[in-house]
Amino acid sequence: MSNFNRRDFIKISSAATVSASVGLNTLANSPTVAKIVGDLAEPGASSRTPTYCEICFWQCAGWVVKDKDGRPWKIVGNEEDQHSLGRMCTRGSGGLGAYLDPDRLKKPLIRSEERGKQVFREASWEEAFNYIAKKMEAIATQYGPDRVCLFSHGCGGPFFKTLINAYGSENVAAPSYAQCRGPRQEAFGLTFGADLGSPENTDIKNAKCLVLMGSHLGENLHNTQVQEFGQAIEAGCTIITVDPRFSVAAGKSKYWLPIKPSTDLALVLSWIHCLIEEEIYNKDYVKKYTIGFEKLKAEVASYTPEWAYSITSIKPEIIRQTAREMAQAAPAVIVHPSRHVAWYGDDTQRMRGIAILNALLGGWGHRGGFYQLQKAGVPECSAPLAKKAKNNWRGQLDGKYPLASMPPANFLCDKTVEGYYKGWFVYGTNLSQCLPEPQKTEEAISKLDLLVVIDTMPAEITGWADVVLPECTYLERFDELRDKPGRRRQIALRAPAFEPLYDSKPAWWIAKNLAITMGIGAAFPWANIEELLNDQLAKLGTSMEEMKKVGVKNLGEEGALCVEDGLELHFKTKSGKIELYSQTLEDLGFDPIPKYTAHETPPDGYYRLIYGRTPTHTFGRTINNPILNQVQAENDLWVHPTVAKRWNLQNGQYVKVKNQAGVASLPIRVRITERIRNDALYMAHGFGHTDKRLSRAHLKGANDTALIDKVKVDPIMGATGFRGTFVTFDEV
Ligand code: SF4
Questions:
Q1: CA-based Rg of the chain, rounded to a whole angstrom?
Q2: Which atom of ligand 1 is nearest to the CA of 52?
Q3: What range defines the domain where residue 320 resides?
Q4: Predicted confidence band at 30 (pLDDT cuts at 50, 70, 90)?
Q5: 59 Cβ closer than 6 Å to some ligand 1 atom
Q6: Is the CB of 326 inside a 6 Å radius of any atom of ligand 1?
Q7: How many domains does the chain have?
């Protein structure tokens, strides 16, 4: 197997930097951009402004560097930052494209024809705010303020949360929960009494064995983890990758287990069986910290590798061998919890299986396993007008999803279809491309009295809005201090490198001024965000002046990260122990220990649709970025050679695929490869935009989300399973 090392990562970053300069060259030919950039920036930095990246949620801290004439030159990592480790990834290096994109939203827009026709008139901010305030007042009077929801993704989200809390609603959802990482959050919470954090608390660089199940590390360029992945490989870490597809990570692995899709839980339960049967689990750790071991042992007794082979297609000796590899490395072993885990509708139980496997290996709290997160603790900005909503989302669940710790976005959508919710604020998330069954999202929107979308770029969801509010990009604004838990108590500052272009405004300004128009301005008890930041920084013993010089700051007094450093393990579960057996789940009528249940398999001529990430893009948000789009403009459909032969497909030809309901994709280019099983097709997520205002992304590649059907919802916390879709070829 070839090695992926630190140098490889640097190569990727360098490639991105090259592409960034190519992008700026080409962009300068655009009349709009030429006005902004002027002559091309020349190497030779004159100033740098601290930022943290918003191209994805990892929030790597870096510097926006300008040339001697003040023109944008490049974005580089901050050497002191625990997220970037001094390097931006491909996408982060292309962040200037977000600022320079001539397709950006430029003025507030008010819909002038029926919804979805994308016909708007430009408006002043005052007119847009008055329009929204009037509609919000009408909703509050007629139905109550708790009929308004916020869907949010990104750094400005907390400002809009403050706004709708002050208005009287607690319905704040994020598709990153029920459409992504929610099941693992609840499963690890049930098992260890703790969340994994974001970035996750995985000590990859010190791991001796790393197990990746459907995790696209290296394709999803989660910066810190990819760099640590390279370090771990160099240090001889054993990588075990479980994936129906020979992913980048599989290429760096000692073991690639091309599992039959939808059977991962069978493999996990069989690994648990092997550890217990061969008595190679971490006995001291299990004895000291867990409860429910005997019940677990009895439950998994029948999950032999021979049983699992018939389900997963992974040979029994490989299952045993990989279980032994994990045991040998323990406790420096991580069975990675992944991130997007909303797959089949029983995802909390699958993630419980992974949590239990980690518990048997003893990695939680140990070096090379899961470290203890440290948090800076930025003082909260009080919102004196925040009201307790009379009827919050939980009251509407009617007994469903009892362990949902936030409202599933799909649930709010379903209730809107029923006519219950009347107003939506959508901040920084293209709901049309991230909720499954987009037809249902459109039906919900048709029932609304008000849809407000706040974003930097047009997207399918803005086409449905009543009011569109243009946010400026992260390079043009202050935001809240970054205070993400990590190995260190560290904060990062985002300061504006440029004045906002066009008539765009920062999220804090939009939320505060809309609140003032609505008569609830006291929820924002500061004149502007600099006043808020100055106050918070002073309480943390630093200042704006210092932060502008350093970008990130460690606040000291860090606790131990792991037992080897003196950490004492405590678990905030009901029992105070790691719960291999969950009384909470049993009391709610769910399996206290995960059981395997089979999922439907594709009928003849159909293939399971699986999807993943590409190192160049973040979901659909960056496809139109003029720099990143030059690196990758469309996605491919991975097809196994036997499937290609059956359908007489050629490499590079365009095809459409359709699901069992007859919904067809846009044309997508075929890539024939043995790197995918013959019962599945694969495409990268985020492509296939249909909004004409995205001049580079429009109709490029196919959108996997548009095909997702037969969605199963996790009864424990409401996540929507995205991997139950079977597709066949439509037009060849
Ligand atoms: S991982 Fe890349 S895109 Fe994401 S925040 Fe870091 S540099 Fe930006």
A1: 25
A2: 5
A3: 181-371
A4: low
A5: yes
A6: no
A7: 2
666 lines ligand 1 (CB under 6 A): no
- CATH number, domain with residue 698: 2.40.40.20
642 pLDDT more than 50: yes
pLDDT digits (tens, 9 = 90+) for 390-443: 788 999 999 999 999 999 999 999 999 999 999 999 999 999 999 998 899 999
CB 360 within 8 A of CB 281: yes
Closest to 467 measured CA to CA, from 517, 395, 409 = 517
* Of 440, 465, 445, the residue nearest 455 (C-alpha): 465
Asked whether residue 255 is domain-assigned, the answer is: yes
Q: Identify whether 61 is part of a domain.
A: no
> Which ligand 1 atom sits nearest the alpha carbon of residue 87?
7
Position 4 scores a pLDDT of: 36
Beta-strand relationship, 467-470 and 290-291: unpaired
CATH number at residue 194: 3.40.228.10
pLDDT at 557: 78
Q: Is 155 in the pocket of ligand 1 (CB under 6 A)?
A: no
- The stretch 334-338 carries a mean pLDDT of 96
Whether the per-residue pLDDT at 385 is higher than 70: the answer is no
Confirm or reject: Cβ of 408 under 6 Å from ligand 1.
no
Angle at 373 between CA 370 and CA 378, to 5 degrees: 165
Q: What is the ipTM of this complex?
A: 0.99
Q: Read off the tokens for 173.
A: 């959802």
In the structure, what pLDDT confidence band is assigned to residue 387 with cuts at 50, 70 and 90?
A: low
Last residue of a domain, one of 371, 403, 423: 371
Cβ of 93 less than 6 Å from ligand 1: no
What is residue 36's predicted lDDT score, i.e. its pLDDT? Answer: 52
Domain boundary among 347, 371, 395: 371
The pLDDT of residue 383: 57
Residue 499 lies in a domain: no
Mutate to test the pocket of ligand 1, among 13, 51, 55 (most ligand atoms within 8 A of CB): 55
Neighbours of 301 (CB within 10 A): 11
